[in-house]
Specification:
By secondary structure, the protein is α+β, with helices and mostly antiparallel strands. The chain has four domains: 79 residues, Arc Repressor Mutant, subunit A; 50 residues, no CATH class; 88 residues, SH3 type barrels (Roll); 76 residues, Alpha-Beta Plaits (2-Layer Sandwich), CATH 3.30.70. 35% of the residues lie in helices and 24% in strands. The chain contains eleven helices and twelve strands. The strands form three sheets. The protein has a five-stranded antiparallel β-sheet. A hairpin with a 5-residue loop joins strand 10 and strand 11. Helix 5 packs antiparallel against helix 6. It is elongated and about 95 Å long. The N and C termini lie far apart (74 Å).
């Protein structure tokens, strides 16, 4: 749209805003000097296009035909056109000043001054120096190697607690079950594997030149870490009084007395893998009674934790303790 058209639309908007009553097309032609075509039909079509353009821009051009008018008229309702007053207190203006300051010097200073002038309390326009720091995430650590296609090496702890070095061609990252995974070709296993970022120990190091590998065409990163579907289970817990509130907060319901001052509680739809850490964390205040398979899995996991933190590998986790 050229400048003449923009100027015409602006002046048409002003004319329709200033009138208190609907203005006919003929009156608009006389007031604005626009639509001078000798052919009335051509002039009318041009006006209709302008009117449609204004409406498409969100300007509420209304068509009205008041009593005594032979032809319909047009106007813009100020109440619908104008923004509501901005009413900010001093603290809100200060927060806005901080945001404007972060855009750079002299950006938005005049509009901010106008807003601050309407604040009921003295509102400082000068914001204290501020910097926004973005924390480095697991994704950021891998990004350079993924972009440059450089091999990485890191120490990795598996789900059962074993650690070892991994050398991987990083294809990308994917999020599953609230955890980030690096997906790439494991050199030792010569295949695509997924590695949880929170199980990587120490620094992730890049080795070798850029462009060392190509990402397989059509690879679905999510499928590499999807794993088998896990069927939720219902769990019965033996809970001491100290652990009752935590199991209740998790959605547990009281199903009876254990006879020794504790309670027997029921949890529905427990994920045997995802919720394993929580079940280990609430022991010994809450221990699994059923199902037996989950109880045995937790007992084995707890035994490994104890062995990893004691010099003496012999430990008695107790019957029924998980």
């Amino acid at each position: 749209m050229g400048m003449p058209a923009v100027e015409r639309l602006v002046n048409l908007t002003v004319a329709l805003l200033e009138t208190r009553r609907p203005v006919t097309f003929d009156e608009l032609r006389r007031r604005t000097g626009y639509y001078p075509q000798p052919d009335a039909a051509s002039a009318r079509r041009m006006f209709e296009r302008d009117k449609d353009t204004l409406r498409a821009m969100g300007i509420p051009v209304e068509t009205r035909q008041d009593f005594g008018m032979d032809d319909p008229g047009y106007l813009i309702d100020r109440a619908r056109y104008e923004l509501r007053d901005v009413d900010l207190d001093a603290e809100e203006v200060a927060a806005l000043a901080l945001a404007v300051d972060m855009l750079g010097p002299d950006v938005g200073a005049l509009p901010l001054a106008k807003v601050a002038a309407r604040a009921p309390d003295p509102a400082p326009l000068a914001a204290p120096p501020a910097r926004v720091g973005l924390p480095v995430t697991d994704v950021d650590v891998f990004a350079p190697a993924i972009v440059d296609r450089r091999t990485v090496r890191f120490t990795y702890r598996t789900a059962d607690g074993r650690t070892g070095e991994r050398t991987v061609d990083p294809y990308g990252v994917v999020r599953r079950r609230r955890a980030w995974y690096l997906v790439g070709r494991d050199h030792d296993r010569d295949g695509a594997r997924g590695f949880r970022a929170d199980r990587m120990l120490g620094e992730v190091r890049t080795i070798g030149p850029e462009g060392a590998f190509d990402v397989p065409s059509g690879l679905d990163l999510g499928s590499v870490v999807s794993g088998p579907d896990v069927v939720p289970v219902d769990v019965t817990l033996r809970v001491r009084s100290e652990g009752t509130w935590e199991v209740t907060a998790r959605g547990g319901t009281d199903v009876g007395d254990t006879g020794d001052g504790g309670r027997r509680m029921h949890l529905r739809d427990v994920d045997p893998i995802r919720d394993r850490a929580w079940l280990l964390g609430v022991a010994p205040d809450a221990t699994v009674e059923e199902p037996a398979e989950l109880q045995a899995t937790l007992r084995t996991a707890l035994t490994r934790v104890v062995e990893a933190h004691t010099d003496d590998a012999h430990t008695d986790v107790g019957e029924g303790r998980s």
